[in-house]
């Protein structure tokens, strides 16, 4: 006869078994669709570029060396690849700025929506998602219309007499930043809204009741409670910003490249697939390190969300 | 009595909520009330009668549509909630989930910019007051409902407000804990000398705890008085009905004067009742008799009827009698050593009503 403990153990084993079975399709997709291609990219980054694109099956670490370093044409010495570094730096700083700006603009927006009467919130959320209906390329060209020399911004500036000749906005870091903030704002607003909506606004009243001013209520009560949304929104904005391709291409022109453009260049005109692959892996590493750093910091400085 | 300066005074306060359609809700309708210093004052009324609305107006979370609220004689309309020397114990407690018990209690003092040492000392004192020293570093999600209630209380008391507002603070607790906390609250009010404005829909709670009670119904205050006043001398039928159990009898006024009136019931029985105001002869009127102010007798009494049900309650017995006129009437007898004291279901009995026990009500 089986004891109660044996029965319980068996039930647990069965449970674990069926859980594995149930998750098999998901695991298969993860392995085949995500890890598989990733593995190919890693392998490619250690091969030699072919003459017309593609790769030669010949082991080489050249691609990895040239991610950060460049070989002098005459004496073969290695020095830091200034062009790559400045592109990396531009990518990281523009993405960080994008994240901060979307947070600054998105926070009040999400707060506004979360404090509307319940039946009105859906309409506001719907309005926030409207940009998703149009193609990214079209939205970016629309931004170009706004920023170009005879665009709306310059027209307003001149009509107001602030300047008498058009200010060069297109093909600057500012244009890229403005474009990315515009494109990624909904990705910040939605997770912020999701965690603000869960706030019990009686806590805000309790804060006022206990002599907290508006600013203190924001800092001591609302922001700590919205932290999960801030983290999620920042991740959702920062990662695609770092890999942004269309926006810097259209608004930044040929001079304000970001990592995404650099990678594309290697697979296209550059005909250096291994370097493109190595750059992709490098980008992924930056993202992962940044994420790890960010998540650890935000969860530690506010250990309450355990 | 009138010489005492009121702690809180509402003068003709109305609050009208404009609904989604045309229908506006009059949550408070021209309410005037004066709450004395150091008083345990209770707002009692059924759910939806405007108790929370009145508290929110005093706390400053909401503003009156009309009228004014004075705090120690001063109009507080221009003060935002964080400038009013008033603290609230919320119905749902509203403890900060991202802070510990001690941080919750110290929050008000911290916002007032008190020095760290003073905050720490005061938090310690508060923790001791509500017997929560051991849980000081717990999160509010890791303590029981009763403990959360005590933290909410300590948090509101810590900044030493002039007036403490309590919105049904005990309604989420089970019976035994509620009884304990009632005594605890009464003790705290006594020790701190703070004016308590306590909201409840539980008439028993109101009677046992309050110095004075305001009975509310659909946005109005019907009566303000001591527990004895509202129980024994209810101003109108709603108050008599809401507080405790009451027998109502309707009849015609036969004679009146001198604070008394004689009423003829449909069965022909005549009852003498106290009448607070003059009633018109020949008009219909309702009188009330508390079940414990009536007594069953074997022979003839003021009323006659037949026993329908006998319900035993331990300390006393409720005897439901069907009067000869058809009305239901309940008599409450304190239990002595005999079980039913000789009364059985179906017995023809008389009911004796005590002196001044019957009272004429305005409807
Ligand atoms: N913010 C509001 N908007 C519309 N109606 C409200 C609002 N707050 C309260 N009311 C209405 O006012 C009345 C009194 O509510 P409340 O003061 O909460 O009652 P109580 O606390 O006595 O149960 C109720 O009819 C309620 O529906
Ligand atoms: Mg209420």
Explain what you see:
The complex is a heterodimer of chains A (306) and B (363). In chain A, the strands form two sheets. Chain A has a two-stranded antiparallel sheet with strand order 1-2. In chain A, strands 3-4 form a two-stranded antiparallel ribbon. Chain A contains twelve helices and four strands. Chain A is 72% helix and 3% strand. In chain A, a hairpin with a 6-residue loop joins strand 3 and strand 4 (78-80). With 306 residues, chain A is mainly alpha-helical. Chain A has two domains: 4-79, no CATH class; 81-305, MetI-like fold, CATH 1.10.3720.10. In chain B, strands 6-7-8-3-9-10 form a six-stranded mixed sheet, sandwiched between helices. A five-stranded mixed β-barrel of chain B has the order 11-12-13-20-14. A five-stranded antiparallel sheet of chain B has the order 15-19-16-17-18, with no helix packed on it. Helix content of chain B is 23%, strand content 37%. Chain B folds into two domains: 6-239, P-loop containing nucleotide triphosphate hydrolases (Rossmann fold); 245-361, OB fold (Dihydrolipoamide Acetyltransferase, E2P). Chain B is built from eight helices and 20 strands. Chain B starts with 5 loop residues before the first strand and ends with a strand. In chain B, helix 2 packs across helix 3 (116-129), helix 2 (101-111) runs parallel beside helix 4 and helix 3 crosses helix 4. Chain B has 363 residues and is of the alpha+beta class. The chains are: A mainly alpha (306), B alpha+beta (363). At the A-B interface, helix 8 and helix 9 of A face strand 6 and helix 2 of B. The site of adenosine-5'-diphosphate (ADP) has 11 residues of chain B, from strand 2 and helix 1.
């Amino acid at each position: 006869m089986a004891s109660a403990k044996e029965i319980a153990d068996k039930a647990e084993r069965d449970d674990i078994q069926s859980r594995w079975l149930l998750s098999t399709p998901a695991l298969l997709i993860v392995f085949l669709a995500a890890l598989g291609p990733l593995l190919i990219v890693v392998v490619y980054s250690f091969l030699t570029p072919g003459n017309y694109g593609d790769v030669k099956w010949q082991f080489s670490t050249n691609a990895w060396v040239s991610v950060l370093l460049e070989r002098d044409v005459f004496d073969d010495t290695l020095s830091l690849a200034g062009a790559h570094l400045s592109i990396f730096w531009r990518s990281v700083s523009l993405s960080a700025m994008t994240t901060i700006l979307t947070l600054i603009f998105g926070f009040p927006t999400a707060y506004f929506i979360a404090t509307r009467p319940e039946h009105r919130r859906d309409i506001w959320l719907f309005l926030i998602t409207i940009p998703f209906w149009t193609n990214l390329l079209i939205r970016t060209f629309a931004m170009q219309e706004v920023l170009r020399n005879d665009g709306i911004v310059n027209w307003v500036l001149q009509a107001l007499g602030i300047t008498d000749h058009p200010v060069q906005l297109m093909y600057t870091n500012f244009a890229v930043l403005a474009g990315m903030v515009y494109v990624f704002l909904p990705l910040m607003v939605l997770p912020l809204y999701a965690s603000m909506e869960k706030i019990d606004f009686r806590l805000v009243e309790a804060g006022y009741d206990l002599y907290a001013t508006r600013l203190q209520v924001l800092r001591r009560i609302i922001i700590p409670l919205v932290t999960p949304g801030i983290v999620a929104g920042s991740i959702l904005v920062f990662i695609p910003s770092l890999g942004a391709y269309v926006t810097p291409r259209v608004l930044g022109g040929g001079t304000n490249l970001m990592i995404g453009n650099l990678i594309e260049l290697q697979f296209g005109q550059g005909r250096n697939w291994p370097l493109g692959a190595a750059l992709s892996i490098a980008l992924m590493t930056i993202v992962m390190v940044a994420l790890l750093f960010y998540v650890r910091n935000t969860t530690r400085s506010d250990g309450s969300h355990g | 009595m009138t010489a005492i300066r009121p702690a809180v005074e509402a003068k003709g306060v109305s609050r009208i909520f404009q609904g989604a359609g045309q229908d506006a809700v009059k949550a408070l309708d021209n309410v005037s009330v004066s709450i004395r210093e150091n008083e345990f004052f209770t707002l009692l009324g059924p759910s939806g009668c405007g108790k929370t609305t009145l508290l929110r107006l005093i706390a400053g979370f909401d503003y009156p549509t009309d009228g004014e609220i004075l705090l120690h004689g001063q109009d507080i309309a221009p003060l935002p909630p964080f400038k009013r020397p008033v603290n609230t114990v919320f119905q749902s407690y509203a403890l900060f989930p991202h802070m510990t018990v001690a941080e919750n209690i110290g929050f008000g003092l911290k916002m007032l910019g008190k020095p760290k040492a003073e905050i720490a000392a005061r938090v310690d004192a508060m923790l001791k007051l509500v017997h929560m020293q051991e849980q000081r570093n717990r999160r509010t999600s890791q303590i029981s409902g009763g403990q959360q209630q005590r933290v909410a209380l300590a948090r509101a008391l810590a900044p030493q407000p002039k007036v403490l507002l309590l919105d049904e603070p005990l309604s989420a607790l089970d019976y035994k804990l509620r009884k304990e906390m009632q005594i605890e609250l009464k003790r705290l009010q006594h020790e701190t000398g703070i004016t308590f404005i306590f909201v409840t829909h539980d008439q028993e709670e109101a009677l046992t705890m309050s110095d004075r009670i305001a009975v509310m119904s659909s946005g109005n205050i019907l009566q303000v008085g001591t527990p004895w006043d509202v129980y024994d001398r209810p101003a109108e039928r709603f108050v008599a009905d809401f507080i405790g159990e009451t027998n109502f009898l309707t009849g015609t006024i036969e004679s009146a004067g001198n604070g008394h009136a004689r009423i003829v019931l449909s069965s022909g029985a005549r009852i003498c009742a106290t009448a607070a105001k003059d009633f018109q002869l020949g008009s219909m009127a309702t009188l009330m008799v508390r079940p414990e102010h009536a007594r069953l007798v074997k022979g003839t009494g003021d009323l006659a009827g037949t026993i329908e049900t006998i319900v035993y309650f331990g300390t006393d017995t409720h005897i439901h009698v069907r009067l000869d006129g058809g009305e239901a009437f309940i008599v409450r007898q304190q239990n002595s050593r005999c079980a039913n004291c000789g009364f059985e279901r179906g017995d023809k009995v008389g009911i004796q009503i005590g002196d001044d026990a019957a009272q004429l009500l305005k409807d």
